[in-house]
């Protein structure tokens, strides 16, 4: 299956069948995270498989874990990162590659950033100094029964836009903020469409893209909402990393050679040049070579 088809197939799964996933498949999922393309290779990340899902579920928040959500997950993978500049952006970019790999294997996943504390989950892990727990995902075969679907629907009603994505015109502009994107480049439009479909914290979709000659600028809406800044971690950066990952993977599949540059430029100067308003932060520049 193409990565673009997998991007369209992936949804958050919060209820699972009890069937365990074969060990070699779980290991392949972890490997896909460990071997994922990074935005910054100097930031150490780790993906820890917990085969006995109950151990994680028990440490999750009230109404989750063993009570209502996620308690049925046979396994979990916990994502940890060194706390360094761009660590949230980098984790979004990397872990989404693992999520998409798992989806391609027919497995269900769900980004979870909010229903745990680092302290409680950290007790399961051998955390190194300066290492943070960023997110976790259940892994298992989706429960497609009525109850499983109902649980998903209830959560989506509480998420922004009821789980629907913003229109492309609302997230992708021309070279200046708010300027309509006028392009006939079907590959560029496809890569942006894949970015548009990315999952995000409570479906807040904080990503914006500006398209200039041969480059695409990614910016984040830095508004704090739905608790997306937690324990010093800015989840809107992680969300934009996920959308950048979708863009990168789709473009690569279509034969583009480009990559995201996330350092070595002055974000304020880029914002001025492209009339990006206050409250938005420039996080990356994709250059097509
Ligand atoms: C960084 C991040 C954190 C998330 N945290 C949670 C969470 O704590 N609990 C939850 O049920 N869903 C969580 N989600 C899933 C989103 O609610 C979901 O991706 C969004 O509503 C879009 O739905 P979809 O993934 O089915 O397309 C999170 C997603 C992301 C990207």
- Widest sheet: strand order? 4-5-6-10-9
Question: Could you say how many structural domains there are in total?
Answer: 2
What is the succession of H and E elements? HHEHEHHEHHEHEEEEHEHE
The CATH topology assignment of the largest domain is NADH Oxidase
The CATH architecture classification of the largest domain is: 3-Layer(aba) Sandwich
Q: For the record, what is the CATH homologous superfamily label of the largest domain?
A: NADH Oxidase
Bound molecules: flavin mononucleotide
* Structural class assignment: alpha+beta
CATH class of the largest domain: Alpha Beta
Instruction: Measure the end-to-end span.
Output: 26 Å
How many runs of DSSP E, i.e. beta strands? 10
Q: What global shape is seen?
A: globular
Overall residue-averaged pLDDT value: 94
How much of the sequence lies in strands comes to: 15-25%
**Tally of individual helices:** 10
Low-confidence stretches: none
Query: Radius of gyration over alpha carbons?
Result: 18 Å
């Amino acid at each position: 299956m193409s990565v673009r088809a997998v991007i369209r197939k992936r949804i958050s799964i919060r209820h699972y069948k009890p069937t365990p996933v074969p060990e070699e498949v779980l290991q392949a999922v972890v490997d896909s995270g460990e071997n994922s393309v990074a935005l910054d290779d100097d930031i150490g990340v780790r993906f820890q498989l917990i085969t006995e899902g109950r151990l994680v579920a028990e440490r999750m928040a009230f109404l989750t874990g063993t009570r209502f959500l996620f308690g049925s997950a046979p396994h979990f993978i916990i994502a940890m990162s060194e706390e360094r500049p761009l660590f949230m952006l980098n984790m979004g970019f990397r872990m989404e590659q693992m999520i998409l790999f798992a989806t391609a294997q027919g497995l269900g996943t769900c980004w979870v950033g909010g229903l745990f504390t680092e302290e409680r989950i950290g007790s399961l892990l051998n955390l190194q100094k300066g290492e943070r727990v960023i997110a976790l995902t259940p892994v298992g075969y989706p429960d497609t029964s009525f109850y499983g679907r109902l649980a998903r629907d209830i959560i989506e009603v509480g998420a922004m836009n009821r789980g629907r994505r913003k229109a492309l015109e609302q997230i992708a502009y021309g070279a200046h903020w708010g300027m309509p994107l006028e392009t006939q480049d079907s590959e560029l439009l496809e890569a942006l469409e894949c970015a548009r479909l990315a999952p995000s914290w409570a479906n807040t979709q904080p990503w914006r893209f500006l398209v200039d000659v041969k480059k695409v600028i990614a910016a984040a809406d830095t508004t704090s909402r739905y608790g997306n800044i937690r324990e010093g971690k800015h989840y809107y950066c992680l969300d934009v990393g996920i959308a950048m990952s979708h863009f990168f993977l789709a473009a690569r599949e279509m034969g583009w050679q480009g990559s995201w540059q996330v350092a070595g430029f002055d974000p304020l100067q880029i914002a001025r040049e492209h009339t990006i308003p206050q409250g938005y932060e420039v996080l990356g520049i994709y250059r097509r070579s």
